[in-house]
Specification:
Helix content: 10-25%
Radius of gyration: 23 Å
CATH superfamily: TM1070-like
Number of helices: 1
Shape: elongated
Largest sheet: 7 strands, antiparallel
CATH architecture: Sandwich
Oligomer: single chain
CATH topology: Hypothetical Protein Tm1070, Chain: A
Strand content: 35-45%
Structural class: mainly beta
CATH class: Mainly Beta
Number of domains: 1
């Protein structure tokens, strides 16, 4: 009899929780990142387009194996190096080995505070970028600023060995 009561109670609890409205996920914007609303916020005289190579995969032949690939996690790091002036991050685009656009990470341009950093991550299981993956970052400022430091950091493991390296960004425009 006690088993029936327990099963009935569990069933009632399950029905109550399954009927409860789902909580909306609240997206919290870090204090050092301020979304831009007005179109005039994007009128800047200083800025660059940066190409950043990223290696989300490499061929295992470099490690003595044939016909397989090793995946790497990738972090794109954007650092505002100016002590006093914020910069505006307009766009962060991710492309694959064939130059095919995969994803835009910036839905709305935002202001990155002085000396602040932000990052974008590709998980190790994501093979979409391939060996020739890359990012294109567009940034700007209304005033003369120190250029931000932008690089990709790759991390991965093969057997008992861990690998990490960085790939700096290059100004292309």
């Amino acid at each position: 009899m006690n088993v029936l009561k327990l099963l009935a109670a569990a069933g009632i609890i399950l029905v109550i929780y399954s009927c409860a409205p789902e909580k909306e996920e609240v997206k919290v914007t870090p204090q050092h990142i301020q979304p831009l609303i007005a179109a005039g916020d994007l009128d800047f005289s200083i800025g660059q387009t940066i190409y950043v190579p990223a290696y989300s995969q490499i061929h295992s032949v470099y490690f003595g194996k044939e016909d397989s690939w090793i995946n790497f996690a990738v972090t794109l790091s954007i650092r505002n190096t100016d002590i006093n002036i914020p910069i505006i991050i307009k766009s962060v685009k991710y492309y694959d080995n064939d130059g095919i656009f995969l994803k835009e990470y910036v839905e709305t341009p935002y202001q990155l505070s002085p000396m602040a950093s932000t990052s974008y991550n590709i998980i190790q299981a994501d093979e979409s970028g391939g060996i020739g993956a890359n990012f294109i970052v567009e940034w700007g400022s209304k005033e003369s600023v120190h250029e931000p430091y932008i690089e990709a950091i790759m991390l991965g493991a093969h057997g008992k060995h861990g690998y990490a390296w960085r790939s700096p960004g290059y100004v292309i425009k």
